[in-house]
Design brief:
Blueprint (H helix, E strand, L loop, with lengths): L2 H8 L5 H16 L2 E4 L1 E6 L25 H13 L4 E6 L7 H11 L5 E5 L5 H10 L3 E3 L7 H7 L5 H13 L3 E8 L6 H13 L4 E6 L16 H14 L9 H6 L3 H6 L5 E2 L6 H6 L12 H14 L3 E2 L9
Parallel strand pairs: 1-8, 1-9, 2-3, 3-4, 4-5, 5-6, 6-7
This protein binds S-adenosyl-L-homocysteine.
Amino acid sequence: MNKQEIIDILSNNSKNNWLFNKANQIRHNFVGDEIHLRALIEFSNVCKRQCYYCGLQSTNKEIERYRLKKEDILFYSKKAIKLGYKTIVLQSGEDDYFSSDKLCEIIREIKKNDVALTLSIGEKSFEEYKEYKKAGADRYLLRIETTDEKLYQKMHPNADFKNRINCLENLKTLGYEVGSGCLVGLPEQTINSLADDILFFKEIDADMIGIGPFIPHPQTPLKNSSSGDFWLALKVMALTRIELPNINIPATTAMETIHPNGRIIALNSGANVIMPNVVSFDCQKKYEIYPNKANSTNAEQYKTELEKRINEIRRFISKDKGFRKK
Ligand code: SAH
């Protein structure tokens, strides 16, 4: 689709059913009916950045900060692997406590198992990305958040849009599977810039794209802004599936948080990945990037329930690591 066609679809709801069915069909044809589960370990909510939308930003003094010990991280990875997860995702705020050496040790330990490992720990130097890769990391998630440079600069004080792009390029160069994505519904974000976001995902040939509605957090500068729209976020996701048919697309937690059946609707509109949380309920609550984040109280129970819901929509849990099908 060209940009105008994308804009037309985004600004008009009359073709929504067609769009969601089309994205679902393309998902079926290109990546099949299997769903890849990625075990998410949110290992630190300490962050040096001030992203306006995020509850973990450093100026939030009300949040109780935590850092998991190496042993805890390995404990949760083992638990996830036992439950059958084939990918471990390590996510955190930008926390300099976790030096390259500390992280590489953890990566090497996890990679002794037959699993894929994804990192989602923000902007780092080329050298650092290189070391994580050498230690065994397979994938990296770094959302561009928005391709509207002006809006990006507004939302991210003391950050540089060009560096974010640079990081994505470095990750590609180093041979990672690269995931990106955007927020939908940031204040002042336009339909035009959402269309640019989709074209950007295509331009960088992203291997994974995560899209979620913006959800205001009460301890951030955007506390009085309204939430992003679930259906608009779903449309951006469905269009991304049409433009990049063979990539991995998660049904994001933000979608599930903002709509009671968000995950299943997303899985039927182009998504093929779910990233369940496997850390303790206490940590999940403290990793409050936005409020009322959909949590799982018990990892075992959650996986069983998920499997049931997946089977109900005649899909199944994949047994492989779920790299991009090229
Ligand atoms: N520090 C890492 C991980 C960030 S958390 C990094 O910079 O990449 C993962 C994602 O949560 C972010 O990329 C952002 O898109 C999303 N997020 C943060 N705050 C949010 C909010 N208030 N509403 C919806 N999504 C949010």
